[in-house]
């Protein structure tokens, strides 16, 4: 997950997220085709039908919950953890619905939902760097598996410049 403006732009072009950003920064549907906020501390997202990861596995609300739970886990040392300090609970009443419950109202909450989702087995399989920091998931979720790019093979490690 990116920590700078350029990285965020690249992630938005290569990873799908619950909510995207429109031309002027407004929240627009992406993985979630709609959402509602029945009260200032509850957001309910409904996932689009037929979403799949690049390997063909279906995306479910459990994957979304896992992604945000991973970010919130202090052991993973995610630089985005503070962004979600208002999250009190993440519920998955069915495979296509994710409910975020906040500890207090947080007006920019929708803008924080521009995050890709990872299947749990990818995160669990990640090894740690010598510093103890976990390696990030490098297998993006395809945009409804209809985008122009698909990962065919990943060799692991850091990219090399060829020099």
Shape: globular
Q: Detail the poorly predicted runs.
A: 119-130, 133-148
Number of helices: 3
**CATH topology group:** Dipeptide-binding Protein, domain 1
Number of domains: 1
Q: What is the CATH C-level name?
A: Alpha Beta
Mean pLDDT: 75
Query: Into which percent range does the helicity of residues fall?
Result: 10-25%
Largest sheet strand order: 3-4-6-5
**Which sequence of SSEs, written as H and E, runs from N to C?**
HEEEEHEEH
- What is the CATH architecture term? Alpha-Beta Complex
Number of E-state strands: 6
Q: Give the CA-CA distance, first to last residue.
A: 27 Å
Portion in beta strands: 15-25%
Please tell me how large the radius of gyration is: 16 Å
CATH homologous superfamily annotation: Dipeptide-binding Protein, Domain 1
């Amino acid at each position: 997950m990116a920590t700078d403006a350029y990285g965020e732009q690249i992630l938005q072009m290569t990873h799908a997220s619950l909510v995207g950003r429109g031309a002027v920064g407004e929240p627009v549907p992406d993985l979630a085709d709609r959402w509602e906020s029945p009260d200032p501390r509850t957001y309910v997202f409904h996932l689009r039908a037929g979403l799949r990861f690049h390997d063909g596995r279906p995306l479910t609300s459990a994957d979304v919950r896992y992604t945000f739970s991973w970010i919130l886990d202090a052991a993973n040392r995610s630089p985005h953890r503070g962004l979600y300090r208002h999250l009190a609970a993440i519920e998955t009443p069915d495979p296509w619905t994710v409910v975020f419950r906040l500890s207090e109202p947080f007006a920019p909450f929708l803008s924080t939902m521009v995050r890709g989702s990872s299947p749990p087995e990818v995160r669990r399989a990640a090894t740690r760097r010598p510093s103890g920091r976990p390696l990030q998931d490098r297998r993006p979720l395809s945009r409804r598996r209809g985008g122009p790019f698909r990962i065919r093979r990943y060799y692991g490690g850091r990219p090399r410049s060829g020099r």
